[in-house]
Amino acid sequence: MNDALEALSKDELIQLIGIYSKNWLAMDGVWFQSVEQKLGMDEAMHHDAEAWRRFTVIEARRIKEFLKLPENSGIEGLAKALKLRFYANINDDRIEINGNTLTYTAVDCRVQTARSRKGMELHPCKSVGIIEYTGFAQAIDSRFTCECVSCYPDITDDSCCCKWRFTLNE
User: Which CATH number goes with the domain that contains 52?
Assistant: First the structure.
């Protein structure tokens, strides 16, 4: 273990998790913008989709193992796992459960906020989001299906950045 980490207090470790989460998101944005500037949005989106197809499953499996979730952990397992994603540390989000459906809402998104602040077009994240959220949910419990409710460029809910519905098919 890293001696510097062991010396930190709980509050300092929580603060550091926030810093690590922002660093991770910055790295994700930096590589994407590099490809976008050199090869265009379509090429950047292709590589983004491929990266998320692999990363989201890795992230979900590690969280699932950390939480000691069973193979079919259902709605409650997905809710617990979503709360521990990197995004959960830096975005304002909300989870609502209604029967066999979980709705995840990103009220505020650092990616879109940063792109707006820099005068860049918004990230057309719906197509990659479908890959990301479906892969994450199915790595937690293979019975999930995922549906985009609202995500750029197909915004149907102006009160949030994006919204996703997960249905547990039993």
Answer: 3.30.1380
Supply the pLDDT for residue 95.
97
Helix segments in 9-125, DSSP class H? 10-39, 41-67, 74-82, 86-90, 110-117
The one-letter code for the residue type at 23 is N
- Contacts of residue 162, defined as CB under 8 A and 6 or more positions apart, other chains included, come to 105, 106, 109, 125, 126, 129, 148, 150, 151, 152
Q: What is the dihedral of CA 57, 35, 27, 79, to 10 degrees?
A: -30
Q: What is the pLDDT of residues 35-76, one digit of tens each?
A: 999 999 999 999 999 999 999 999 999 999 999 999 999 999
What is the total count of domains within the chain?
1
List the structure tokens of 131: 């890959």
Residue type, 107: V
Q: Which residues of the chain have pLDDT under 70?
A: none
For 35, the domain range is 3-168
Give me the pLDDT at residue 115, please.
84
